[in-house]
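We close this part of the discussion by returning to an individual protein. The sequence in question and its structure tokens are set out directly beneath this paragraph:
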Amino acid sequence: MNQSLNCVELLTEASSSKHNGSFQFSGKGVNWKIYLEQGQLRGAANSIRLPFALNYHLRKLGFANLINTIKSIPASELETHNNEGDNWLEGGSWIPCLRWLVSYNHLKLSEADQVLASLSEEALETCLWLITGEYKWIEGQSLPQQVSTAGFMSQKIDLIPLIEKFQNRLQAWQEFRSVINSPYQGLFFNPQENSSQPAAPILLKLAKFLKGLNFRELSILLNQDELKIAQLLLPYIKTGEIKLQEPSFPLNFLPSIPHNLVDSAIEEDALKKQNKFKIACIDDSPIILDEMQRFLGDKNFEIFRIDNPLEAAAKLLKIKPDLIFMDISMPQINGYKLCSLLKKSSVLKQTPIVMVTGRTGFIDKTRAQMTGASDYLTKPFTRSDLLEAVEKYLPDFALSK
């Protein structure tokens, strides 16, 4: 049964908790498989198999000369793999193709891994756009045998920065959402017969490509990012000089540009109107968390208690707090390391972080500042100590008193 999905939240939490295994997502007739090792991405694929997708990524990475070479691979090297598995990681001809290219020195192993990483990233990005469907986590599941046997994909990819990159790209796509609903829409040149003005030079130059190619295909041919192409062609789409066609089969099964960020913005505005400030408290001690919640109360603040530091990053990315109080001495990951990690996030880098600890030494305070902490609160603290820090870093609360 379909349900509302937040793939970003699920993957971020699994990455922050350093899980090993695989996610299986499904929606609108498409399945995705995403493999994690110690919370890092090992591989991702979906069940949409396009005949020329491997050629697309070879061209994208500068290996276009190998497209003709692939045609000379003996059928006996590929035929036993064509119908196996649900995606290219589990079966199909792409892995055998790359294995053959490496075996005959057309590609280095590291270059083959680049191609597979590019294929994985494309699958991951489309999965992040999925907002309804089903998912299943399979603990401990590793990459399919045909991948590990070939010696491919030995390198892991940091997942959270990759998700942030794709979220930023999604926001850029959403700026075009009123006109463009998918990067897989086909583009057609549609000259205006009754216009007294000639077509723009850029349209005349691109006319030979605007015969049904989608934004991603154009990006490879023109060696430009697809978002830049969308921005360049947007005015001509609006005037009707370029017509858009819905994605062709099977690309029409992939998610379109979602609206969920707009809904999130509405929810955030509603929360601000309630004049409640979001404060996250991270400490492995329930006693300290109880004290913080009692001191702050719930009249002016929405308090988020986090007692597992390994889950903190994923929860904070979702909460987007106005202020963070964080213990330094925690198991598995200390406050210094967690603070440094949070400050690398585009979502949280401007959020004030106050370190809470029983340590009072100059070196400890200096180390906290070096990791990006805004301030230092020493245990034991009083209610007035806590509120003083809140008023310092939430000036709007101080003014509202």
Notes: The chain has three domains: 3-160, 175-258, 274-400. Residues 109-128 form the longest helix (20 residues). Residues 322 and 340 are 17 Å apart (CA to CA). The longest strand covers residues 30-37.
